[in-house]
Design goal:
Elements (H helix, E strand, L loop, with lengths): L14 E5 L7 E7 L3 H14 L4 E6 L9 H6 L4 E5 L5 H14 L4 E4 L11 H9 L4 E5 L6 E3 L3 H19 L11 E4 H4 L15 H12 L4 E5 L1 E3 L12 H16 L6
Helix pairs in contact: 5-7, 5-8, 7-8
């Protein structure tokens, strides 16, 4: 631990931690994954080749496909592999990774999905915005300079007409791409006692939606940055949200975030 942080109220799932290298940068890129196979390997190789100004941490939900072999992770300069062993899904993985990152003394966290859909060039822009004092940065494929390639029609409709308007109104700041997991947070925002991201209520996608809403409500500096998100052609959509039940669950979590259920 490199700074004094009161963790007495934090609820962080159990996890295993494999740290391969020392801290080199002020910011960390957290990549949540579970069984992403060659997609995460190719993504990590692209990141490594770009020599981005950020440390890289993989937050694993319990992959069994062998894609996160430690020797491979070290070869592409991943700093740490954090494997959630306790209950929960994406939000639980993020709680593990965010808690570890804050205790390591990082000034900010950038998060991007590990399914290979996102352009990694934007990482440097997130770091630039964090360095200039922004506390919540949302990546948007729909703003000027962004790119949405082969996005399924139902996802475009759900994001543009339901998800983004709801969370924008609740958070008092306008965003255009709130389902996008490419985003950045300052440490001061995550450590604010009025935010409290380390709660067991955050298990699935709730934490992402809540943090979008809460930043504007508390008057933090927020902005959007353009990103590229590309869906593969002629292949299954790389997503963990499949079936009508899962989609309804995401919609329910969105409404809960907009209505302030997680703000208590």
């Amino acid at each position: 631990m490199t700074r004094s942080i009161d963790v007495s109220s934090w609820d962080v799932p159990a996890s295993d931690k494999a740290v391969f290298a020392m801290k080199r940068h002020n910011y960390v890129l957290v990549i949540p994954v579970i069984n992403e196979g060659e997609r995460i390997r190719a993504q990590l190789e692209r990141i490594h080749l770009k020599s981005l100004p950020i440390d890289v941490v993989v937050a694993d939900g319990g992959s069994t496909d062998g894609s996160l072999d430690p020797s491979f992770l070290q070869s592409v300069s991943v700093r740490a592999l954090l494997t959630k062993t306790g209950p929960g899904k994406l939000s639980a993985q993020l709680r593990v990774a965010y808690a570890w990152s804050l205790l390591e003394g990082y000034r900010g966290i950038v998060t991007v999905d590990g399914n290979g859909k996102d352009g990694m060039d934007a990482v440097a822009l997130f770091v630039e915005k964090l360095e200039s004092g922004y506390d919540y940065i949302q990546g948007s494929r729909y703003m000027k300079g962004g790119m949405a390639e082969n996005t399924p029609f139902e996802r475009t409709i759900g994001n543009r007409l339901i998800h983004a308007p709801l969370l924008s109104l609740a958070g008092r700041r306008w965003f255009t791409d709130t389902t996008n997991g490419f985003r950045g947070y300052s440490s001061r925002y995550l450590l604010d006692e009025k935010v409290r991201p380390f709660r067991a209520i955050f298990q699935k996608y709730e934490l992402l939606f809540y943090l979008t809403v809460r930043a504007g409500q508390l008057g933090y500096r927020v902005c959007q940055v353009p990103v590229r998100r590309t869906y593969p052609v002629g292949q299954a959509v790389p997503t963990k949200i499949t079936g009508s039940g899962a989609k309804f669950d995401v919609l329910k979590q969105t409404f809960h975030a907009a209505l302030g259920r997680f703000s208590g």
